[in-house]
Amino acid sequence: MHDPERTPRILVAEDDPDDRMLIREAFEDSFPACELSFVTDGVELMSHLANTVATTRSTLKQAPDLILLDLNMPLKDGRQSLLEIRSDPELRHLIVVVMTTSSNSDDAAFCRRHGANSYLVKPTKYTDLTSIVASLKQHWFRSSQ
User: Fold this and answer.
1) What is the pLDDT of residues 17-72, one digit of tens each?
2) Across 28-110, where does the E strand assignment appear?
3) How far is CA 49 from CA 12, 13, 45, 120, 133, in A?
4) Contact by Cβ (8 Å): 133, 68
5) Which one of 59, 70, 118, 132 is most buried, by most CB atoms within 10 A?
6) Span 9-138: which CATH code?
7) By CB neighbour count within 10 A (0-12 exposed, 13-18 middle, 19+ buried), where does 142 fall?
8) What does the alpha-carbon distance between residue 27 and residue 7 come to, in Å, rounded to a whole number?
9) How far is residue 94's CA from residue 64's CA, in Å, rounded to a whole number?
10) Cα dihedral sign for 41, 71, 120, 15?
């Protein structure tokens, strides 16, 4: 769980450069007091998490407090990544919020069934994206500024 005494760490798994730019801007506008980092596919995500877990044991580096996960990524998609995260005892505690273009009810059901903390459809308007970021901040990081 997030320690309110330190900066929240958010890891975004998103392959689209335009979406990454918009997400970065939305966090800068709505949640500037967080540490935001990006990976571009599920392989990179799982590698990042494995490195974080390995170094957490020996250093002060810590896992992300929240993962914002796109479903449709190359190499390893968000569904596969979610399954791996939830099957790993070292990672299963992580908060995973799926944010994807898919409004398919089967995708949402799959994600909920396999442990996603939330399922959000990417908004088409920037103001709606900043509202989502503000909601994430309020819900998961109540004591963060």
Assistant:
1) 999 999 999 999 989 888 999 999 999 999 888 887 655 554 445 788 899 999 98
2) 35-39, 66-69, 95-100
3) 12, 11, 6, 22, 22
4) no
5) 70
6) 3.40.50.2300
7) exposed
8) 13
9) 7
10) positive
